[in-house]
Amino acid sequence: MAVEIKSVVKGSPVSGLNVRAGDILVSVNGHDISDVLDYMYYSAEIKTELLIERGSSLHTILVTKSEYDDLGLEFETFLMDKKQSCCNKCIFCFIDQMPPNMRETLYFKDDDARLSFLQGNYVTLTNLSQKDIDRIIQMKLSVNISVHTTNPELRCKMMNNRFAGEKLDYLRQFSEAGISMNCQIVLCPDVNDGAELERTLTDLGNLMPNIQSVAVVPVGLTKFRDGLYPLKLFDKDGAGKALDLIEKFQQEFLEKYDTRLVFPADEFYITAERTLPPAEAYEEYSQYENGVGMLRSLIDEFERACDMAEDDEIKLCSTSLATGELAYKYICELVENAQKKWHTINCRVYKIINDFFGETITVTGLITGRDLIAQLKGKPLGDTLLLSTSMVRRDDMVFLDDITVADVERELGVSVRIVENDGFELFDAISGN
């Protein structure tokens, strides 16, 4: 696939050579380029030869650079073609549970393996061919895989895709080729838990040492499920049984492979009303983005920040903080402990009920602007309202419902500060720094 060059980055290895916007990149080091992976892989060498088409003529451009340095060519899209959409209709898919009339991009189901390598997205493997697998193995890429179950028949049922079961063979191929894999399991009560989860964890353990980590996360259900597969949430007993099984495997894997390998999401501990494990139980927090260890990390960072702070660093300030139901109790405890130590800290913590998606959605990252406005209107908010960065799209500070941070500020009459999911930054924010 030849692709048009949109621009050349100033000061890049290609800058100053005979390459310009509008040229067509035909090949790199003699290899055709089908997408960004080919481009990055074949241009990684110190000496790189580009074949450029300009009008009716072809030009060879020789580039010398440091190994793995980017050439400096920019294209219409990051991937150099369109994103690959999901071909499944999973029984637990969150996008199928979205309300109508939201922005179009929120309904796009991404299942693009290239974004797994480049941005850490998880993919089901169902839209990959053997040719794709061979390329991944050749390039020695690591892969993030949504497994859910290693029972082929059950995987077909859960994904509503008759090919989903046979694609599990790609796990074996990756393992035999030494490809590193991170895996995730969305756990649904009475579907892939219990004996099925035991089977899945056993099978993934047999792929060691090439499985790096496995996250087990509970299914999330909104109020928009009319006509969808009948699923239920984990209750206290079900969450406890899931934890017991996972922790049994953790101990076995730790003894056999020197890693716990499988990690349950924080929500399981909260639902089961159990104490969060210590930091060492999460090892390197490899599944942090899946909600595994987020609360433990936040608590430990906040407490270290509190221990390290000097009295003269704590300012007289009045703030408020809005969070989801899942983290509310833990955030309250952190703030209360800080206020006991420094009476100049004045921070009110508010629990936001998710009316937009339904009260069963308790995570902070799915709180919308309209729920914030409706539930905080008229409340004492101090000088600054603190909100987690997980609530907004970073590039334009927009919530899922297209309400902006500026809208919230105007409606509530308070300045908003977006805080990273980091205990040190949270402590700074409530202490006026």
Count the strands? 14
Shape: globular
CATH architecture of the largest domain: Alpha-Beta Horseshoe
- Whole-number average pLDDT? 93
H/E element string?
EEEHEEEHHEHHEHEHEHHEHEHEHEH
The whole-angstrom Rg is 25 Å
Number of discrete domains: 3
The residue fraction in helices comes out at: 25-40%
Question: Oligomer, anyone?
Answer: single chain
Instruction: Write the CATH homologous superfamily of the largest domain.
Output: pyruvate-formate lyase- activating enzyme
| Structure annotation, total helices | 13
CA distance, first residue to last residue: 52 Å
Structural class: alpha/beta
In the CATH hierarchy, the third-tier topology of the largest domain is known as: pyruvate-formate lyase- activating enzyme
Pick out the low-confidence regions. Answer: none
As a percent range, the share of strand residues is: 15-25%
- Broad CATH class of the largest domain: Alpha Beta
Question: Biggest sheet, open or closed, and with what strands and sense?
Answer: 6 strands, antiparallel
